[in-house]
Design goal:
Distance between the termini: 69 Å
Number of strands: 2
Oligomer: single chain
């Protein structure tokens, strides 16, 4: 399958990319190269290959899932314009 200049123009329009008429042959050639590479990838047999999340097999570093308050109450409340009794104080919204 080959991409023509008209199809390249349509793709550029759909992608909302402004392409000069003089650049359309080059764009069509690049799109043809991408499609050719995709055809090569489709020829590879991957039936027994596990999906990968990266190129190196690594385990994620894990930590114990423990709920804490962060022990930073004073630092957090220092940024508040109004804090009372260890909480943010906000204006009353509903009466």
């Amino acid at each position: 399958m080959a991409i023509t200049e008209d199809e390249a123009r349509k793709v550029a329009h759909l992608a909302r990319i402004a392409v000069d008429e003089a650049d359309l042959p080059g764009l069509a050639q690049e799109l043809n190269g991408i499609l050719h590479f995709m055809e090569q990838l489709n020829e590879v047999d991957v039936t027994d290959v596990e999906p990968m999340t990266g190129v190196e097999p690594m385990r994620l570093k894990r930590r114990e899932d423990v709920v804490t308050d962060g022990d930073m109450q004073d630092l957090v409340l220092k940024n508040a314009p109004d804090a009372r009794e260890g909480f943010f104080a906000v204006p009353k919204v509903v009466e």
